[in-house]
From TrEMBL:
Annotated protein name in UniProt: Transcriptional elongation regulator MINIYO
Record-annotated RPAP1/MINIYO-like TPR repeats domain positions: 1281-1464
Residues covered by the RPAP1 N-terminal domain: 277-320
Domain named RPAP1 C-terminal: residues: 382-460
Keywords linked to the UniProt accession: Nucleus, Transcription
Record field: compositional bias (Acidic residues): 84-93
PANTHER family in UniProt: TRANSCRIPTIONAL ELONGATION REGULATOR MINIYO
Composition-biased stretches (Basic and acidic residues): 131-149, 158-168
Length: 1558
């Protein structure tokens, strides 16, 4: 199947299906479109047209007959002269009558045309679009009139393979003869001018020397017969095997010069077919020729061309080879680009959609990663799938077997699963064939198609999740592997238009089709896999917020922020485009809203597109019609996926009239005691909607919460619940868990706290210690622990509504508290007792094995039991509740303390501490062994959890980390409270006894477990050092994933940000934050020991890695990490490490940093404030949502553009770590996760205008100190260890240094800052020298940083010329852009900017520049533009002062010009050499002051080895070498007498000089 170029306004696709002669045979079962004919029935002697949609959108649920109308046409095909006004016909009987005549489509035989060989040749090329470059040689000098003719032939050739439909989709399946008589004529008349211009643009871009010999003929003005005289002579002298083919080629090309009328269309189509056959014959002939014969033929051709023409043709051929595959993908991969980068160029409608603007960042198509990805997606087009979603085996691949298969493409429509023997589906279906089959009139075929689509989607997503996280393999590395990422992206892409198809057939009037369509929608929204992820998230006690699943992308970096990546995330589909008309939709003019707008939004975000198409109203209608159980479950699942999408979609569900009410009525109207999956999902939906405070308050006021949670009162007897049966226990457990979560959400908002009094008797059943033997016997242990765990999480939420303990006690006499929704401390005591009873680990059968001292292999085998993770989740929820109680006791400030101590210590505090120690949760003494093989009884639960967190089971690892975090929180709170109480020695505390546990409690629980905690810290730091790399490899093309799905449906390998591996790493990072509080850095005035240095370096490295792991739900955690990184003890160590490194390493200028205590405090405050404001601040909306909505409705009728771009707002609010107003942490409008180079932001703040409240200079100076410190500390780590600092490319580090100077030299005012800057330059120079061994072209400023980097260079050079006065440090920084590792365009921009600013002489000598001098000199420059720039500066005199001052600019020009002219120039570069020599000699003749410069150029000796140091005054050449160079100059003059005289004069001057020297 051929792809349609999205940039052509004449290429029209109607809902993703372009039916041509080939595609018609793919449609299965003789498909007849479902709909109504607008014309009277005519004999079924003609074909049925492609469906034509009306502009009627999907505002409300309605019958399918209301539109969009699929209009099958019979009889004569109308041209483009038909008007929309002719649609008002009232004959709706065509469908019933034409159905009787529906027969399989048969291919018409075209006598005299053999397409079989042509198909093989096209199949051998990895392109689905025929080449349009066969006339490239003639186009070099052809006139515009001839180019139009060439464009016509090229287009006709393309139409031979695929008939382009007209505006209404007619003409899509015409044969060659029919198409010649009708369709193409009307199409060409309407769009001729635009297509000619676009074809010429494509031909010029893709033009080059072809492999075939006849394509290299010199283009000339053609005479009457189409063959020039020169071409006739060439043909006569050609190799005999190529003469006939060349003559045929010219004859066929001659036919293109005739006028375009209907009688000659068929002849020109035959000519274009003849061209294809000629090309095939040439390819075959070349394959039969030997290498010598080919060389001989090439020599004959080259002898006929002038050198200038040969050079031009070779250059064109080289350009074509360089872009090769990218030039092909650039035309027919646009559909996938539109999907993956949301650059919707409208590959699915006529022209470019005028009411769509896209502001997503555009990736340069020249990058290898993007090109490779485009090829991967394009290859999916030909894949065929079976009903179970698997790719069919190669022996059934009809595209390669041709007619040998019994189910080839031409008879695919004859498949009949009821009357065909064998396996009719063995050949499989492509994605587009399945989409076409879904439009069949036969309900069974539609159901089959949707089952196939659902199977492909489901299998693709499960395989994507199982792939290696962040692994982006190239095409050549995927041999034998199915590329499921590309399959998923193509299926959700704009070409199949899957969203529109799914939305349309949800309106079907056959229940089986509706159910299959609903299941396909469920798969497209990745409901099941997303719910698995969020199920684990719900179990983590410390995660109070969830992230929406809407696809997002990064905003484009700007020069104002130093081009730093990591901008604010933005939704793929703007929220205002999801519900563009709101309530006024039905009252407004519908002409402005078209289905194509919906398709475009669906291409950006499939869930947003479905909502825009009115899926919510249709779901409401289906729920009101009493659907089947399976359909109801699917529909509610779709609503859950939509509610998780974004706050806008959740609001859309709430605003859909009576939708929520319908769900609640179905929940309550069914059998009260019956529990079904749909009921469970209904509660889940209400819970998701209640995450927003406004919705939650409405649910509470209307009594919806009580209605949806009444099952919590149902069970009061443990035995009754167990005896109900395993299946009943599973259903009841799932329902009770969701109802408890709904209650917890309400409690988190401050509502429904009073429900506790009524629910306490029912909760006691789940809070008390159960009979584990009975649970294990009935196989319901997991179900019971799930309910108990959720009950303790609810108690944890209730404890966070407790008032401060001591302030509450002081106001007990005043009656009740002011807040009616606060929990009471009197109710806490029984809950603590139940919790302490439940943490007797040694009495729980499965967990007691942890203390039996078995080896790790046996322990790992026991942990395979599926009941272990639920028990760990139960322990973590209990620890969370106890920690929340203890945190409520700790005073918020010292005002509540009496003489620095607590008034009294509550009895439950030491009780909790003793329970931890007696139950073996933590060690008794600091001498306890840390070995996992320790003797029985010596191992603690903490030690065993340290092992469990490292096993491969993800859920067990996450649960273990949660248990550890909760345990550390409880121990820290107990130690804190006891420390505050022990400050008062007058009253001995009741727990101070003689037992071992009591003594340990007095000394501190954490202090007694220091060895275990240090081992745990080492284990966590080790995991952090590797996991952050996976996080950085996920974000591709500036977005979270390449597909417009939701959640895991973003399409990133391994699940991307929604991977359980990433979730496990994030939980471990939060555990690491608590360990930093337990094991802090101790401030030392003088020096650090070697052990302390190693420990602090590892901690800082782990903090840098943890910052990269945390996402939008963890802004408060990132805030704590930044506090640790910029605390005073850490900064003191950084200062100490800088001094130590500079003193111990040679090659660095030693300097003394003078920082006092107040300087450290200032640095800490400035750096912490900057990083929090830069990376943790959320984007602030300019207007309220209500104001925007009113403005939109006010201007909705006047607007011509419905889908706005997403504006960039610079205003920012307070840090996002503040308490959220809702329980949703949006991806959009914030920056987490941090980019890899986030720590470079202080150096770019000088060129930013968004941080007005901070002192720019102080931030930059502090940034220099911090960057130098972490760079030098990374040198102390093992070389094989990958650290975040090391992984930042040196190009970003050098760019950050340059960004600091963009506003001037203010940063050099202080000696400390100047020394730090120069030291950073030296460090980065060493990195650059080391990278030469790995990547010789590593400084890709334009590719890696920004495509408009030349603008940055211009601004920097302008500052350098204006304020530097030749400052060496500033000059070193500017000079680095002339390094040979820098991209040629950037080097050229830097040289031109320096030359135009007359600043070339301000650069320092080459030996004082950043990095080794060899990198500036080698390899010798071969870029024509740069060499010409060097020559221009030489001739203009811009290098005169530079030569006198010994500037690096003159050295570079001298070296590269001399080396290129006299040593490295060869082959096709000789014309350039001659041009340069002529310019230099003319300059020498005119300016006698340049005589010394030219002699230096002639006598310059290029350094031979890297080890040889660079000398400005090289040893003079031997006389024989000078003679050889003079001969080169003579040759370059090309016989110009005046220039030859100058060479002679130069020879005499050199002779005299040598004589004087001797």
């Amino acid at each position: 199947m051929n792809n349609v170029d999205s940039k052509k306004p004449t290429t029209q696709k109607i809902f993703g299906t372009v039916i041509n002669e080939d595609d018609a045979s793919h449609l299965v079962g003789g498909i007849v479109e479902k709909g109504f004919s607008e014309q009277p029935l005519k004999p079924p002697t003609s074909w049925s047209s492609a469906p034509r949609p009306t502009v009627l959108p999907f505002p409300v649920a309605r019958h399918r007959a209301h539109g969009p109308h699929w209009t099958p046409k019979v009889g004569v095909v109308r041209g483009n002269n038909d008007r929309d006004g002719e649609e008002n016909e009232e004959d709706f009987t065509g469908m019933d009558q034409i159905g009787a005549f529906a027969k399989p489509m048969e291919r018409k035989e075209n006598k005299g045309l053999d397409f079989s060989r042509w198909r093989e040749i096209v199949a051998s090329d990895n392109s689905s679009v025929p080449s349009k470059r066969e006339e490239s040689a003639r186009k070099l000098t052809s006139t515009s009139k001839e180019r139009k003719a060439v464009a016509k032939v090229s287009r006709n050739k393309s139409n031979l393979d695929e008939r382009t439909p007209d505006k209404y989709g007619k003409g899509a399946v015409l044969s060659v003869e029919d198409g010649a008589k009708s369709q193409d004529i009307s199409m060409e008349d309407e769009h001729m001018v635009q297509e000619q211009e676009e074809d010429m643009a494509m031909d010029i871009e893709q033009g080059g020397m072809e492999q075939s010999a006849y394509r290299s003929v010199l283009p000339e003005q053609r005479c009457g017969n189409g063959i020039t005289e020169q071409e006739e002579e060439i043909i006569e002298d050609m190799h005999p095997t190529l003469q006939v083919n060349a003559q045929k080629h010219n004859i066929s090309a001659n036919k293109t010069d005739t006028s375009f009328d209907s009688q000659e269309v068929e002849g020109r189509q035959n000519a274009s077919s003849l061209e294809s056959q000629i090309d095939a014959e040439n390819q075959a002939q070349l394959a039969r020729m030997s290498a010598d014969e080919i060389a001989e033929a090439q020599a004959e051709l080259m002898a006929k061309f002038s050198p200038a023409m040969l050079a031009a043709l070779k250059r064109k051929g080289q350009e074509k080879l360089k872009r090769g595959k990218s030039s092909k993908s650039g035309s027919h991969h646009s559909g996938e680009k539109g999907n993956l980068l949301d650059q919707m160029n409208n590959a699915t409608s006529q022209g470019t959609l005028k009411n769509v603007k896209d502001d997503t960042p555009k990736l340069s198509a020249c990058t290898s990663v993007w090109d490779d990805w485009s090829k991967r997606v394009e290859s999916v087009r030909e894949l065929r799938f079976s009903l179970d979603g698997n790719i069919v085996k190669r022996e059934f691949d009809v595209s390669k077997r041709g007619n040998t298969s019994s189910y080839a493409e031409k008879n695919l429509s004859e498949r009949d699963y009821l009357r065909t023997e064998g396996d009719p589906g063995a050949a499989g279906y492509t994605i587009k064939e399945a989409v076409a089959l879904a439009r069949s009139m036969v309900p069974g075929q539609r159901t089959f198609a949707f089952h196939l689509i659902a199977s492909v989607l489901d299998r693709a997503m499960h395989n994507i999740q199982q792939n290696q996280l962040g692994c982006i393999l190239r095409s050549q590395d995927r041999d034998g592997l199915t590329d499921w990422e590309a399959i998923w992206a193509f299926t959700l892409g704009p070409e199949p238009e899957l969203a529109l198809l799914l939305r349309m057939y949800l309106d079907d009037n056959h229940n089986s089709v509706v159910l299959a369509c609903a299941r396909a929608i469920q798969c497209a929204l990745t409901f099941e896999i997303n719910e698995e992820f969020f199920e684990i998230v719900e179990r983590i006690p410390t995660l109070q917020r969830e992230a929406p699943t809407a696809p997002v992308f990064r905003s484009r970096p700007e020069i104002e922020d130093g081009f730093l990546h990591g901008g604010f995330w933005k939704y793929n589909a703007k929220p205002s485009n999801i519900l563009p008309f709101a309530r006024d939709y039905l009252d407004n003019d519908e002409s402005g809203h078209t289905i194509q707008d919906d398709v475009v939004v669906a291409g950006q975000d499939i869930a947003a597109g479905l909502i825009r198409m009115g899926i919510l109203q249709r779901i409401q209608y289906l729920l009101e019609t009493v659907p089947s159980t399976a359909l109801e479950e699917c529909l509610i699942s779709i609503l859950i996926a939509i509610a998780r999408h974004s706050p806008t979609c959740a609001a859309a569900v709430m605003k859909c009239q009576q939708l929520v009410e319908t769900i609640i009525n179905r929940f309550t109207s069914k059998e009260q005691m019956e529990i079904s999956t749909s009921k469970i999902k209904s509660v889940t939906l209400l819970k998701l909607l209640a995450r927003f405070d406004k919705n939650c308050l409405e649910f509470v006021k209307t009594g919806i919460v009580q209605k949806m949670t009444w099952h919590l009162y149902r069970y009061t007897s443990f035995d009754h619940w167990v005896k109900s049966g395993k299946e009943a226990c599973k259903l009841s457990s799932a329902l009770l868990v969701e109802q408890l979560r709904l209650w917890k959400v309400c409690v988190q908002h401050g509502y429904c706290v009073s429900f506790f009094d009524d629910l306490f008797p029912a909760l006691c059943m789940w809070l008390n210690v159960p009979a584990f033997g009975k649970l294990i016997e009935n196989s319901v242990l997991s179900e019971y622990t799930a309910i108990a765990k959720e009950a303790y999480l609810v108690l944890g939420a209730l404890t966070r509504r407790l008032p401060t303990f001591y302030s509450h006690m002081q106001h007990l006499d005043g009656g009740t508290t002011k807040e009616a929704e606060s929990w009471c401390w009197a109710q806490v005591g029984p809950m603590i007792d139940s919790a302490l009873e439940s943490i007797r680990i040694k009495e729980i059968p499965l967990l007691s094995r942890l203390f039996e001292g078995e080896n790790e292999e046996k322990l790992n085998g026991d942990m395979q039991d599926s009941a272990v993770p639920p028990l760990l989740w139960l322990i973590s929820s209990i620890m969370d509740m106890l920690a929340a109680v203890l945190e409520a006791v700790i005073p918020e400030d010292n005002a509540e303390l009496c003489h620095g101590t607590l008034p009294w210590l509550p009895d439950f505090v030491p009780k909790i501490g003793l329970a931890i120690l007696k139950n073996g949760l933590m060690s008794f003494s600091s001498i306890s062994s840390t070995s996992h093989d320790a003797a029985s009884g010596s191992s603690s639960f903490l030690e065993r959890l340290c092992y469990l967190r490292k096993i491969n089971q993800q859920e067990t690892s996450i649960a273990s980390n949660s248990c550890l975090q909760g345990l550390l929180r409880v121990a820290w709170c107990v130690d804190k409270l006891i420390l505050l109480a022990n400050n008062e020695p007058r009253n001995p505390l009741p727990y101070q006894g003689s037992t071992r546990e009591e003594k340990t409690l007095t000394a501190g629980i954490l202090h007694s477990s220091l060895p275990e905690l240090r081992a745990l810290m080492a284990s966590v730091m080790e995991s952090n050092s590797s996991e952050w790399r996976h996080m950085q490899s996920i974000e591709t093309f500036g977005r979270g994933g390449p597909a417009p799905g939701i959640g895991v449906g973003w399409g990133a390998p391994g699940g991307g940000f929604w991977s359980k591996n990433i979730l496990s790493a994030q939980v471990a990072a939060r555990l690491f934050i608590y360990l930093l509080d337990v094991l802090p850095i101790v401030s030392v005035k003088d020096q650090f020991t070697a052990e302390q240095m190693n420990s602090i370096i590892q901690k800082i490295n782990s903090v840098m890695g943890a910052c990269l792991l945390l996402g939008p739900m963890d802004s408060s955690a990132v805030d704590k990490l930044l506090d640790f990184l910029f605390q005073v003890p850490t900064l003191k160590y950084i200062d100490f490490s800088i001094c130590q490194f500079l003193n111990l390493n040679q090659g660095f200028q030693s300097f003394k940093l003078v920082y006092q205590e107040e300087d450290y405090l200032l640095l800490s405050d400035v750096l912490a404030s900057h990083f929090k404001k830069k990376w943790l601040s959320a984007k602030q909306k300019r207007k309220s949502a209500a104001g925007n909505e009113q403005a939109f409705h006010k201007n909705s009728k006047k607007r011509t553009v419905l889908l706005d771009t997403i504006p960039e707002e610079n205003s920012e609010s307070n840090p996002a770590s503040q308490e959220p107003k809702c329980l949703v942490a949006e991806w959009a409008h914030q920056r987490l996760p941090l980019p890899l180079h986030w720590f470079l932001s202080p150096l770019s703040v000088l060129c930013s205008t968004s941080h007005e409240s901070l002192d720019f200079l102080k931030v930059a100076k502090g940034g220099l100190f911090f960057l130098l410190g972490i760079e030098l500390m990374s040198t102390f780590l093992p070389a094989e260890l990958q650290t975040p600092v090391r992984n930042v490319p040196v190009v970003w580090k050098l760019h950050a240094l340059s960004a600091t100077l963009l506003s001037g030299m203010s940063i050099f005012e202080e000696d400390n800052s100047r020394d730090l800057y120069k030291a950073l330059q030296d460090v980065y120079g060493q990195l650059l020298d080391r990278e030469e061994k790995v990547n010789a072209k590593s400084l890709k400023f334009k590719t890696d940083i920004h495509e408009n980097y030349s603008t940055f260079i211009d601004n920097l050079v302008e500052q350098f010329a204006a304020v530097s006065y030749g400052d060496m440090i500033f000059g070193r920084q500017v000079g680095v852009y002339l390094h040979q590792f820098v991209e040629a365009p950037v080097r050229l921009a830097a040289w031109n900017a320096l030359s135009n600013a007359c600043a070339l002489e301000l650069l320092p000598p080459l030996e004082k520049c950043i990095a080794a001098t060899y990198g500036y000199l080698e390899p010798v420059e071969d870029d024509e533009r740069i060499l010409e720039a060097y020559c221009k500066s030489w001739v203009s005199g811009a290098l005169d002062k530079a030569a006198r001052r010994g500037s690096a600019s003159f050295t570079l020009a001298l070296h590269h010009l001399s080396s290129f002219i006299f040593q490295t120039c060869s082959g096709n570069m000789i014309p350039l050499r001659n041009k340069l020599v002529k310019s230099l000699l003319r300059d020498y003749s005119r300016k006698k002051q340049h005589e010394v410069l030219f002699i230096n150029l002639l006598e310059y000796q290029r350094p031979d080895t890297r080890s040889e140091p660079f000398h400005k005054e090289c040893m003079p050449l031997q006389s024989c070498d000078v003679v050889n160079r003079l001969q080169i100059l003579n040759k370059a003059c090309e016989g110009n007498s005046s220039l030859l005289n100058e060479v002679e004069k130069l020879n005499s001057v050199i002779t005299r000089k040598q004589h004087v020297d001797s």
